[in-house]
Design a protein that fits this description.
The chain is built from nine helices and nine strands. The chain is an alpha/beta fold. It folds into two domains: 109 residues, Response regulator (Rossmann fold), CATH 3.40.50; 99 residues, Arc Repressor Mutant, subunit A. The longest helix has 17 residues. The radius of gyration is 18 Å and the shape is elongated.
């Protein structure tokens, strides 16, 4: 989010080249979206990147009122007082420009790994253990290496264990709620591949599905 469209569109494009769905907001648009978006849309966001604009402290507190996702602020020039103010408002990291999007993604991963070892960093469903810090899951006691989108599907299903989620909810969580260039039906292909891998490891399919009701683990 930034007051300059050139900045938001530029970063959106750069994240896209890394296979990460992103949306760029002007300041006023972002406030309205955070205040009115459904909880399912807010929870689908993996991280927030705030450009350099005067109201960042207030916007940080606004985001924090609805999401615990990593918050990273970009700084044109680093100044101690402004950096301390951002940390006090709830920012997780302040990064000086210019910075490559790969570094931003690495910092997001590092922030998420701070919770390693805590209960909220891992979710266990029967023989499946998934992590919220970007690590591959453990299935039947051994690490299962999965493509990013299949891993995110498994994480989302585990986070919602005991209840069913729709294809649209999975799409929002995996591709982002703003990606209009991907068909929603692609989720079915990812789920099919994931279920086959889990069945090969476990000997059974832990993901159940019901028409019109969606998918679930531990249901």
């Amino acid at each position: 989010m930034d007051s300059r469209e050139l900045v938001t569109s530029g970063y959106q494009s750069l994240f896209g080249t890394e296979g990460v769905s992103a949306a760029g907001f002007q300041v006023s648009e972002f406030r309205e979206w955070v205040e009115t978006a459904p909880d399912t849309d807010i929870s689908a966001v993996e991280a927030f990147l705030l450009g350099d604009f005067p109201e960042r402290g207030a916007f940080t507190r606004l985001v924090r009122s609805r999401s615990n996702a990593p918050l990273i602020a970009l700084a044109e020039t680093k100044a101690l007082n402004s950096t301390l103010d951002l940390f006090a408002a709830g920012i997780d990291d302040v990064v000086a420009k210019p910075v490559h999007v790969k570094e931003i993604l690495a910092r997001v991963g590092a922030i998420r790994r701070r919770d390693v070892g805590s209960d909220k960093a891992r979710t266990v469903v029967d023989e499946i253990c998934v992590f919220s810090d970007g690590r591959d899951p453990e299935v039947a006691g051994a690490t299962m290496i999965l493509p990013r989108r299949e891993r995110r599907i498994l994480e989302y299903l585990a986070a919602n264990r005991g209840r069913r989620v729709s294809k649209q909810q999975l799409f929002s969580a995996i591709y982002g709620i703003f990606d209009e260039n991907v068909e929603e039906n692609v989720i079915e292909s990812h789920i099919s591949k994931l279920r086959k891998k889990l069945k090969m490891r476990l000997g059974y399919d832990p993901v159940s599905s019901m028409r019109y009701l969606g998918y679930g683990i531990g249901v």
